[in-house]
């Protein structure tokens, strides 16, 4: 798949006196620079601007020209930030990125807590007549520097999204069924194509979330509900339900404690108003920033309430771009664009705010479709490729590096003239460093399905033994054909609901390299149980 690569424009705003702030280009294609930014508004004026902008978002009668207001505010903010040498570096960096056919990622490091609450997503370049972040060539992200490196997780589609709609007693009620239906409507094309799988959490409590996170794997968590701001603690809270269904506050630290331990989780989407807001006392006061501080690579939250139509447009474009391998910030840009086109008189495209710590925006590496499942079209299956090669091994003459391998339907030991492991690797390709991870992810999905069927305990030992054989990816490790086939038959015969998950597991090329080493009997068993046509 072809997606846009980015150069980085790393821009830092330091603490100031309320009116003047130091600004530095820490790195860019055009070099570094330092200058000062002078806010073009007094604190009182700024409060008025922000109130007008928020009012324009929900002006259903058309009394306020929202786009014009946003352009004026965004233009003032742009001219204040991109001044002197900062502007020169920005312009030159854009030219260099265009020359190389790349985008320019604007990484805002806002180290002035009182400025973190501003809607920087409204930056408007009056010279080009465009909002900077509405182009996927110039995404704006709130970049938070924390002391944990981010490594992209290799993911075999579908992206598995855990959804939660919370409508506890005591708050304005949400139509839970309608909220779910809207999200499902947005993701239906992706789900049908196998790119995304959405699973709803039935119990909107912290206990329900904790239990779901013990399964998985989940690649994303999508929350729909109410949020609020705790003036005393300076934390945002999500309103979930307690055991009696009443409203219970889930603070940013508590939510982070639940989510951060689920290692496959790379993304949190908070569809709740004020989820991106904080007070002015600290950089990590908002819910989104607190989650990133705890180690999550990317959190997308809403700085204003978002309408149903905008939420649908956002989810459809955002998850679609992610499933197509876009970096998280580019996917956010595509979603903003979709909202702006679907709702041309609205400013709701500015509502999502992306906080991230992945330097290149890549939180996943999506495997190509040819690596998915049983393979498509007339592509030759891995066991078909191995058939002729193993026959040659069995009839070959002894010589060279002689080993004893178990080959053939009779499971007999024969001396072969070429190491069977080498032969398998020649046909299917050498193992990759990701093989063990890919196989482990397949088993995590298998366990999650067994847990949903309430059959995890029954099959736990069988799955554990099977995993022990199929993770023998080392060149000197030989898996047991009898263990693989016996357990495989037991699972298929006793729990037929997981046949598709097992087929997906055994069709993975990484598993093929392991099964191939087990010998012809193992390959023949896979072909018999999972082969089609």
Structure, explained:
There is one protein chain. By secondary structure, the chain is of the alpha/beta class. It has helices at residues 43-57, 66-81, 84-99, 176-192, 206-213, 252-259, 287-293, 308-323, 328-342, 382-395, 420-428, 435-452, 456-470, 481-494, 499-507, 509-518, 520-530; strands spanning 6-13, 20-27, 33-38, 103-110, 124-125, 130-131, 140-143, 153-155, 159-165, 196-200, 220-224, 226-230, 235-241, 247-251, 267-271, 298-302, 352-356, 364-366, 403-407, 412-416. The chain has 17 helices and 20 strands. The longest helix is centred in the last third of the chain and has 18 residues, at 435-452. It has an 11-stranded mixed beta sheet with strand order 3-2-1-4-7-17-16-15-11-9-10, with helices on both faces. A 3-stranded antiparallel beta sheet has the order 12-13-14. Strands 5-6 form a two-stranded antiparallel sheet. Helix 11 (420-428) runs antiparallel to helix 16 and helix 12 packs antiparallel against helix 15. The protein has 3 domains: 6-142, no CATH class; 153-366, Rossmann fold, CATH 3.40.50; 375-530, no CATH class.
Question: What is the CATH fold-level name of the largest domain?
Answer: Rossmann fold
The largest sheet has its strands arranged as: 3-2-1-4-7-17-16-15-11-9-10
The appropriate CATH architecture of the largest domain is: 3-Layer(aba) Sandwich
Largest beta-sheet details: 11 strands, mixed
Mean pLDDT: 79
Please indicate the percent range of residues in DSSP E strands (runs of 2 or more): 15-25%
Count of spatially separate domains: 3
Q: Please tell me what the overall shape is.
A: globular
**Which CATH first-tier class of the largest domain would you pick?**
Alpha Beta
Please state the structural category.
alpha/beta
User: Separation of termini?
Assistant: 29 Å
Query: Which regions contain 5 or more consecutive residues with pLDDT less than 50?
Result: 280-284, 369-379, 388-418
Number of helices: 17
Q: How many beta-strand segments? A: 20
**Percent helix range:** 40-55%
Rg is 27 Å
